[in-house]
TrEMBL record:
Cross-referenced InterPro entries: Acyl_CoA_acyltransferase, GNAT_dom
One Pfam family, short name: Acetyltransf_7
Domain N-acetyltransferase: 18-171
Protein name: RimJ/RimL family protein N-acetyltransferase
Lineage: Bacteria, Pseudomonadati, Pseudomonadota, Alphaproteobacteria, Rhodobacterales
Sample GO molecular function, one term: acyltransferase activity, transferring groups other than amino-acyl groups
Domain of life per record: Bacteria
Keywords: Transferase
Amino acid sequence: MGMPVTQQQAPKPDSRQIAFRVIHATDTDFLFRVYASTREWEFRLTLWSEAEKQAFLRRQFDLQDRHYQVTFPDAIRRIITQGAVDIGRLYVQRQDACLRIIDFSLLPEARGRGIGTDILRSLMNEAHGGKVPVRLNVERASPALRLYLRHGFTPTGQTGHHVALEWRPATGPREI
């Protein structure tokens, strides 16, 4: 008798590995859930019913999605995954003059674990290699503002409730 033949198993995906996947038409509900999770802090003091909140958020999500498609038609739009689980969304537009983060959002259960920092640093490294700044807008009251300020982004302007932020790659040795 010969040795038993065993099939080699494909390696299991690392459940901690962060990746990006293309967005499909079936992802609309997930993208809405990510969007709605970024607005939860705004509703803490409202007296709206859950149905009113959901209707408002759905209208805002649809308007934002149309705005992004019209304003940034060449943007790269991806779902952020960890292992086989969808955890967020990242929309970026690579331009000659800058790398623009249009939207970068993680679900609450993925926040505070260093994932956002790792992705942001990766984008900053990409911009540094191209010697271009990273630019984005964030709501003044958004908790995400702290992440960007902590990583060296500086305010460059303000429009309504949003602050324009920019990070510039170092151009040479820093003076002490």
